[in-house]
Amino acid sequence: MNQTAKKILIVEDDPDIGLTLATILEDEGYVVATTDNGNEVMTDHLADHPPAMIVLDMLLSGWDGREIARRLKAQDATRHIPILMLSAHPSAEQEAKAAGADDFMPKPFELDALLAKIAALLA
After folding, report:
1. Is residue 2 part of a domain?
2. Is residue 3's pLDDT more than 60?
3. Which 3 state secondary structure label does DSSP give 91?
4. Residue at 13 is within a domain
5. What domain range is 89 assigned to?
6. What average pLDDT does this structure show over 8-26?
7. 42-68: b (≥16 Cβ within 10 Å) or e
8. Which positions ≥6 away from 57 have C-beta within 8 Å?
9. Is residue 89 predicted with pLDDT exceeding 70?
10. So what's the pLDDT on residue 31?
């Protein structure tokens, strides 16, 4: 594994979108972890090796991405982690920002625009 590669956590409950994002980001040289479980985000994925960034779906099964973002931004240990929130509702950008997301990307997204936002958040 490339020790300088930045780890990105993808939180997405649509397996096709999650796999596509993971493949794209791995091809770009990022280390990728994925989950569709809000509980895992708040426990397992942040404990030992927190990610450099989180790509977070706004509407998850059983969890709301906005609540996850609020909780992460309220904790000293995780508030510095940039969050890029995704939603199929383009009008959701204001809600994403209000929840603490650092940036927003509507679905479906253009690959180049997504990669540019990720690079900017990790810079």
Report:
1. no
2. no
3. helix
4. yes
5. 7-117
6. 95
7. beebbeeebbbbbbbbbebeebebbeb
8. 11, 12, 13, 14, 17, 65, 85, 86, 87
9. yes
10. 95
The predicted-structure confidence for 44-67, as pLDDT tens digits, reads as follows: 767 778 899 999 999 987 789 999
Phi/psi region, residue 86 (left: phi>0; alpha: psi -120 to 50; beta: rest), is beta
102: nearest Cα among 93, 111, 114, 110 = 93
What's the domain count of the chain? 1
**Burial zone of 101 (CB within 10 Å; 0-12 exposed, 13-18 middle, 19+ buried):** buried
CATH number at residue 18: 3.40.50.2300
pTM over 0.90: yes
